[in-house]
Amino acid sequence: MSKTHNIAVLKGDGIGPEVTEATVKVLMAVQEVTANLKLNLLYGEAGYHCIAEHGTNLPEETIALIKRSDACLKGPMTTPETPGAPVSVAVTLRRMFNLYANVRPCRSFPSVEALKPNLDFVVVRENTEGLYSGVEYELAPGVGVALRIITREASLRIAEFAFKLAEKRRKHLTYVHKGNILRITDGIFKDAVKTAAQKHPDVAVDELHVDAATMQLIKKPETFDVIVTTNLFGDILSDEAAQVTGSLGLAAGANIGETYGMFEPVHGSAPKYTGQNRVNPTATIMAASMMLDYLGEKEAAAKIEKAVLNVLKEGKVRTADLGGSSTTSEMSEAIASKVKSL
Ligand code: NAD
Fold first, then answer.
1. Does the pLDDT at position 199 exceed 80?
2. Would the pLDDT of 2 be above 90?
């Protein structure tokens, strides 16, 4: 008996609605051609555009809707940068639903220019603490402090997640830190990784300081399999990795907890491209594939991935970030019709 999956869909701000609608088109196509796949999309309001009406970027009704769902497909959202303004919706949801593992696959795509061929690694980022704890003070005018909270519990949890992932892949894990400067906080993180390593003797372990890691990602990206790191370092490294492997417009991310998953593109709301039907929807479409995989719909997830790879390989439909002139809707139509023809 097939189960209906309730999916919370948050379109977001800027280019969010365009890339999310493009993705829904692909989800409808895969539902049409996959026996027993039933998706019930529950649309919720969240993001910068909600603040004027609701006084918050994450209204209570949206939180209730997310609680009724099995997973969330989230478009990118604009985050106000003034002190005291509502904090990022992504950060709030990650904390609220304890989505502790941010998983960002970084891979080469066919016919897409990358720094090196055949790249395939994953950045696993701790998602609930670090410099994203949001605890900041202005001690005196012009003197600010941000707390970088690192706990043994969260570090062990993310290390264990990364080791398990490495075991399913090429059994190589690199942990990235700045322990030479942040001796206490990254000392806790390093100890946790070493503790977790004892349970996974089949995984080869390397370590890098974050500055060296940014360089190594450019120089020898093929040496990585699974990278595990703290919150801010993981955010920066995964944007860099997206460009190393092709384009931010192709990079998808999963936010995974014990009981819930939220899926989104790595990129933000790119406000300058709003409403231009110009950006690449593939990152969000690949996030939807990761979501179906998480929901146990392996066949549907694989169909979307295969369709994306085929469309990119053919190279007839390419958005501007990939050197082409196709629109967002042309890209999603090409992927949706490829899904139907597989
Ligand atoms: P951004 O990722 O929105 O855009 C940076 C640049 O990347 C763009 O100018 C564009 O050149 C390129 N780009 C991004 N997405 C693309 C796509 N789909 N196709 C082609 N090119 C693409 O980063 P930013 O400018 O630093 O942030 C804009 C807003 O997004 C900010 O308010 C930020 O806080 C927010 N943001 C939200 C999330 C999220 O919702 N998870 C993540 C990152 C940034």
1. yes
2. no
Look at residue 279 and give its three-state secondary structure.
coil
Looking at residue 102, its amino acid is N
Ligand 1 centroid vs 13 CA: distance in angstroms?
10
Based on the residue annotation, tell me whether 202 is a catalytic residue of this protein.
no
Between the CA of 14 and the centroid of ligand 1 the distance, in Å, is 9
Closest CA to 319 of 266, 273, 265, 288: 273
Q: Are strands 252-256 and 101-107 parallel, antiparallel or unpaired?
A: antiparallel
Decide: 94 in ligand 1 pocket, CB within 6 A: no
Beta 4-10 vs 38-44: how paired, if at all?
Answer: parallel
pLDDT of residue 3: 86
Residue-wise pLDDT for 95-104, tens only, equals 999 999 999 9
Cα 335 to chain centroid distance, Å, stands at 20
Question: Is 173 within 8 Å of 162 (Cβ atoms)?
Answer: yes
Q: CB of 291 within 8 A of CB of 263?
A: yes
